[in-house]
Structure formats: C-alpha cells, structure tokens
Amino acid sequence: MKQSILILFFALGCFAFDFSIYNKLDDIERYLTTLDSCKGRVKSRLESIGTTYEGRSINMITMSTNARAPYCGCKKKAILVECGIHSREFISIAFCLYFMDFLKNTQTGIQLVKKFDWYLIPVLNPDGYVYSMNVERLWRKNRNPFNETCVGTDLNRNFGMEWDPANGGSDDPCNLFSYSGPQSFSELESQAARDVIVNRGIDFVGYLGVHAFGQMWIYPWGYTFDLVPDDATLAKCAQIATAAATSRNGIPYTYGKVTDFFPTIGGLAVDYAKSAGIKFSYEIELRDNGTFGHLLPEDQIIPTSEETTDAIVAWADCVCAEIAS
Ligand SMILES: [Zn+2]
C-alpha cells in the first residue's frame, strides 16, 4: 500500500505542475524535487550551488542520458541555461521550468539531452524573486543590503569580465536598476554561477542567459563595440534560433551583438561566459516588445515557452553542426 502511494506520488509529481502560471518559489522548489524523483530515460539531478543572503538555496538541475555514442563531435559537451537573474522577469523563470519538462518528457527533448548535457539554474536570484512576488513587483536586483537604506546589486553587472560601474552600471547602491556591486563577484549568486562555469571542469559549449523583454538573441561583447573573433558563427546560430522562434507564432524575434541594441555594459554574465571559453554564449530576451513589458500576462507563458523551445532546438542543431565540422 505504502509503495503504491509512493509510485502515485512520483507519477503525479512528474506531470502535476502548472506551467501556465507564475509559480511561487515554494511551489517551484517542490517541483524541482519531484522532477528529480521522476523516472525516465533522462536522468536529472537536483543540487544546491549556493546560498543567498537571506538563506535560500540556489538550485541547479542537471540532465543527461546514458547515450553511449556522442552525437556532436568526439566528446559530449554541456549547455548552461540560467534564468531569473533579474527577479522581475517572471517569464524567464516560467520558461526554464517549461523547458526542463520538455527535455525530460518529450521525444525532441530527449534527443537534445542525447546531444548535450544540460545544466539548468531556474532561479538564480531567489531572494529577489520572492521580494518581487510579495512586495515590489518590479524589483530587479538581489536583496543583499549595502547599508540600512540601500539594498541589492544588479547581478548582471557584477560578473568579472570588464566589471566597471562607469560602463553601463552604477556605483550608487541606491540605484534600483544597475548597481554593479562594490567589486566584481561580490554577490553570492554571481559567485555561484561563476563556480559552475569555471570551477567544476564541465565542458560547456553553450551558455543561455534568459531575460525579458525585447524578443531578441544577443551575444558578446557587451562591454565594448569590438567584435568577438567568431562573430559570424555566433550570428549564424542566432539567426537560425530567432527564425525558429518567429515562425512558431509569428512573433518577431531579432538578433545581434549586445551593443547593437544597448550601450556598452561591463560585468555582464554573457561576457563572462564567453571570456571563460564558452563559445556559444547568448543572452535571450523573451517577450514582449514593451506592450506589457515585465508584466507579461500569464496567457503568454506557454506560447512564449513554445517558441523559445523551438529556437533552442534549432540553435542546438546549429551548435552541433559547428562543433562537429
Ligand atoms: Zn534581465
């Protein structure tokens, strides 16, 4: 009897999560735990990669298969998907959860896991997410206090690649949007991401930092107008990705260097990933184009996730072809 209840629990745990709403952190963590318990051809493993100022776990899910023969090149490589670095970008987190289910439970997803090992950080900034859900909807930074009145660092200005508050960031801790922190990697969340990228010996070939909004795929550099040496290759795979996204629902996505769309910015996660040797490093800006902005209605979660999943499938094929050639 006990065993059958347990099996039922696991079965429900695999499919009972509601991907069409912006879930609370507690519910997300429950889902991650049950996902970890799900049986299937894709193995997943939940682990904590760090602890925030307010004591929350930063979780990462790893997905892999026992596929013996690598599909791309001579050695199976890994892709890191990082979501929720900016807490008000709820669609980023919702997408990550949808995408994990896709990898685990669909034929196309399982094929992707045969090609690459996937490392997914669904909520890099959990303190900010809880604060944004409960107190201040448009909160963007983490919740590490600088002093009694000024709280939070923009984690996507805090990475150690050309970190510079004077270059698209801010040295004012009270700046609500772009405070770069007192120094590079001053924050527990950016440290946790850095340690995954460089300190574990994982052979990453792809990094996708998922944000909103703007409907675009952008790639390094962000800190300078200079081109990366493989600009044409990064552009090619971005073009393929955004074409796939656009064709799903007719919502236009575009692509280019960070500086095609923004002023130069120092300390970006995507620049750090690229500088750490992850060839195919991108930041994805999900829906919308500014109509709702960060307040994207829940009825757009599934279509946004579907078109972005199509984009990543196409992009992964491009990456695979590039590294195998
Ligand atoms: Zn963002």
TrEMBL record:
Q: Does the keyword Protease apply?
A: yes
* GO biological process terms on file: proteolysis
Please give an example of a GO cellular component term from this record: extracellular space
Peptidase M14 domain span: 21-319
Pfam entry (one): Peptidase_M14
Q: Which GO terms describe its molecular function?
A: metallocarboxypeptidase activity; zinc ion binding
Q: Give yes or no: UniProt keyword Zinc-finger.
A: no
Signal sequence bounds: 1-16
Concerning InterPro entries, the annotation shows:
CARBOXYPEPT_ZN_1, Peptidase_M14
- Lineage, top-rank taxon, reads Eukaryota
Q: What is its EC number?
A: 3.4.17.2
**Active site positions, chain numbering:** 285
Entry cofactors: Zn(2+)
Q: Which UniProt keywords apply?
A: Carboxypeptidase, Hydrolase, Metal-binding, Metalloprotease, Protease, Signal, Zinc
Top-level EC class: hydrolase
Family, per the entry? Belongs to the peptidase M14 family.
Name listed for the protein in its UniProt record: Carboxypeptidase B
